[in-house]
Design goal:
236 residues; alpha+beta; 4-stranded antiparallel sheet; 6 helices; 28% helix; globular
Amino acid sequence: MSIAYENMSPLRLGPRLFNTFGSVWFRRQIPFQPIGSVHPDARSFLIQELTDAHLSFCASVESMSNFVIGGQRTRCASSKSYQLRIAQELGFKIPRTLISNNYADVMAFTKGAERLLVKHFAPHYFISRSTGAVRAVGPSVIRSEHLSPEKVEVCPCIYQEYIDKIYELRVTVIGSQIYTARLSSNVGELIDWRPAFGSARLDVEPFKLDRATDSRIRQLMARLNLPYGCIDIAVD
């Protein structure tokens, strides 16, 4: 990575020089490669320097782009609790939700709920070093008897009342354009449609949103200051 500032020099990425970008997508960024053999006392300093250099680079690219997906503006918008709060303010129906790793609070939240949906903040994959098998971390449906202090307190999770869905909507917003797909299972209940995507288990059809929902989605994107986004809606 090289950034030079001499009479507004262009940005060099490998052998190519850029003065501007039509569009840029910051997707699942990896800021830097693992640090090799350095003195232990210097590791924290190097990690901070590499992190700041990466942020500086991304900020430069973003300032040179006409259409940005990701980047600095999405830092607040990517917050799950912030998304839910704004959606609720705009009139979307939000499942009863708790974000916590306090065991007493979680157990109190489960009272009266037959099933809970537990979500994580980001996708993750566990890879077995011995077999190479990959296990994805995704939404799970649990009951209160599955919970224990050591499981709950290890890290915060998103707990929601489970919604019995008729079908789901996947809404993709690009600029002023909205594209909606209806997702329905033909093999019974699907907690998450993603693992079934592309298979015979999932039917995908175009769908036209009603005016009220279309308007709320446009307001949501404006409040989050996003030119691009994907929204999942469960229809009960």
